[in-house]
Structure prediction request, 460 residues.
Amino acid sequence: METSKQMGILSREQALEIARGLVESSTANETEVVIESFADRFVRFAATGPTQSADRERHEVSIRVRIDSDGGKREGAATCDGIDVALVNGALERAVDLARHAPPNPDLIPLGGPVDAEDRRPDLATLEHGFEPKADWIRTAIEACEREGLLPAGLTQTGGYARAVVNSSGRAVYAAQSRASFALTASSPDLVGGAGFADQTAASVAELDPDDVIRRAVLKAVQSRDSEPIEAGEYTVVLEPAAVSALLLFAGYKGFGCQDVEEQSSFLCGRLGERCLSEGFTVVDDASNDDYPSIPFDFEGSPKSRVELIDNGLIKGMLTDHAWAAKLGVPNTGHGRHQPDPGGPTASSLCVQAGDQTLDELIGGVERGLLITQFHYTNLIDPLELTLTGMTRNGTFLIENGKVTRPVKNLRFTMSMVRAWSQITGVGSELHVAGALFDGEVVTPALRIDGFRFTSTTAF
Prediction:
């Protein structure tokens, strides 16, 4: 077993050696080891320059064991941060001890056996990307904001992530991915006179265009000056990808998993097999998508399937894991979380299919409505209708007769996504990797939606 400190993400050989060593030394009847390895370099910045930076690495080992007994399998789990021998052996001992004291669970099924999973590797240039080029991007962003009398705030980050899963039933898989991002918020000095946001995320640093991110954020901030209040009510909206992401991610967290459906806490309940959303709206979970591929297996080492969740408005599928697939007698789609976990399977790589309209064409189809850059403070109200509430942010504009005419102050929305997605009248032709102001990213175009409900106004 490797005992020296590892720099960066663990290689396939390193991760599998550690995991296999733990499985082989376990005294339990069944053992599963998940190793996650993280590494990143990031810089946060403001008008004064870099405010925080770090070159970080972390390795987390999660161990799950089962001990056979007359009343069923007894299960225990433990984790540790680090791969030192004492740490991982201590975690294994804790897991076994917890299993011995756990009550028998007759519902536990055996761990899955050998599988073939894609051995994905990260982009090395992204893992090696240093602070000097990041400093150049930051300098350019600060200078661009200074020229327009704006205050910058942003984050640039590059890094990688690796996962290995090994169990006593013969499963052994490893994959790694890389990620690069640059984000800028440009704001008026009084912080109420307008702001603009833009970002870009990619699997490779070579795909980033920081100059374009800077240009878009500064332009939105300049155009947001002298915003005027607008009444609450229902509007046709054009949602840019960052705004779409803040809505769609909630469906991934709470809605597409089969446990949510079985527990009657999903918007899929009573709608599976129905074409109740707009034609042209198609959502899949696809870890092997071309735009932003992710780890091709879940935390149980099960290969992730491409799952059609919504097909041209037809609510078509749901996500499963090892236990739920066996319980329901359906295929395992490979969307298990860290086990044991009470939340059930969840989405990991949501992708909205592109349409055939440019952003200008989406705007051109609006008689009177709003262009929304971003949402924040988004929260779930009703899971059965996927009703969300939140606020616009960093660039909200009035559209009149197919043209963006003036900036408006932010609004709070309360809206059922079932209703919203049944009122989509346009899907953008350009895909973006978009995140929200919480964890996660999706691949999505812009969307035009009729009758989007805003419930209150703001003074900023």
Notes: The chain has two domains: 12-212, 227-460. The CA atoms of residues 297 and 303 lie 4 Å apart. Residues 227-460 form one domain. The chain has a mean pLDDT of 95.
